[in-house]
Amino acid sequence: MQTFHITWITFFFCFFGWFGIAPLMKIVKDDLGLTKGQIGNIIIASVSATIFARLIIGRLCDTLGPRLTYTWLLAIGSIPVMTIGLANSYESFLLFRLAISVIGASFVITQYHTSAMFAPNIKGTANAVAGGWGNLGGGITNMVMPLIFAAFVGAGYVNHDAWRYAMVIPGAILLIMSFVYYRFTQDTPAGNYANIKREAVQKGSFWSAASDYRTWILFLAYGACFGIEITFDNVAALYFTENFSCDLKTAGLLAGAFGFMNLFARAIGGIVADKVGKTYGMKGKGWLLAGLLAMEGLGIMLFAQTGSIGFAVMAMLGFAMFLKMANGATYAIVPFIDSKNVGSVAGIVGAGGNLGGVLAGFLFKSETITYAEAFMYIGISVAVIGGLTALIKFDRKALPVTEQTLEVA
């Protein structure tokens, strides 16, 4: 349980560093004179490097172990977060945002480490709670970073300097957490990889995980839920500011409400998936995920059509519930696709989440498509992927013995 709590807290602060600049983008936009197209490129950059990082990190978890992998990721990732304030042009800011996006690979370690620490019948619940409470950082940062920025302004700094100094704080926290993770966690209940027999460690095979078509359907499914979540974390404050004329703090609070639902929604998805799995097996989990994605897509389409801020917030909270439950349901399935290569499967599926964010980012970059139209296209795509997810087939031979036993029980 110590490792569990340190893992989700660490993931929480990773989100804080990853999206710390998002609620301040209105200030950065005015400071650097950014265009809509340039902001779109920045949104894409903020999630793109994570795609490749998650593939690599998943493999490192299978070989080096989650403890050392997380320690190094935190230490290295803290650098661009603390130094993004050195950017003085669109090009340099884009490069810093690209470097920061590597921190998003922390999710794979979180899910891998949690899977290693808990029994099969509650992996979905444990993964969903850890992921959800960690994702909560994406909502809290929308609420807190404008206050940190305001504190620097109140201390006498102009906007040009205040947003730069504000980003030092989440970066410093990441550096501290790298020490905490190294000192107070271990790779498995049996101990660290370096201290247990090598034959007890599953070395894993990336190609085995990649050859299973179900891995790639979950890749798409996670892109349709988590990919849209990180996209919304990036654009929500700016959307409420420009479409409904909200001030920075109000927009941050509204955007934060979306992320705050991770406190319970993702956990509910994992808990429900585990209960469905006990009764209907993995097939039931697949149908649950498909239904959640379909409802998420419909909710996003409704959000795109709202013309008042009140209805917009209601629609946002509605689709957020289904989206975050789908996040939890996805990783209630992941540990059972290939039990010998959980890290590689988690890495591939996690990368799908970021690819979804990248593709959605291109819609928000377009000069000819409004943000509302972009959300409509996203909603349609999510619903279609939900239908595709319903086609996943699970057979007993492909499942670990522990999960087969659960199905019989």
TrEMBL record:
Keywords, A to Z? Membrane, Nitrate assimilation, Transmembrane, Transmembrane helix
Specify the protein's topology with respect to the membrane.
Multi-pass membrane protein
Name the PROSITE patterns for this protein.
Answer: MFS
- This protein's source sits in the domain of life called Bacteria
Q: Which Gene3D superfamilies match?
A: MFS general substrate transporter like domains (1.20.1250.20)
Membrane spanning residue stretches: 6-27, 39-57, 69-87, 94-113, 133-158, 165-184, 216-240, 252-273, 311-333, 345-364, 371-392
Keyword rRNA processing listed: no
Query: In which compartments does the protein localize?
Result: Membrane
Ranges where the Major facilitator superfamily (MFS) profile domain occurs: 1-398
Q: Which family does it belong to?
A: Belongs to the major facilitator superfamily. Nitrate/nitrite porter (TC 2.A.1.8) family.
- Give the protein name, as stated in the record: MFS transporter
Instruction: Tell me the lineage of the source organism.
Output: Bacteria, Pseudomonadati, Bacteroidota, Cytophagia, Cytophagales
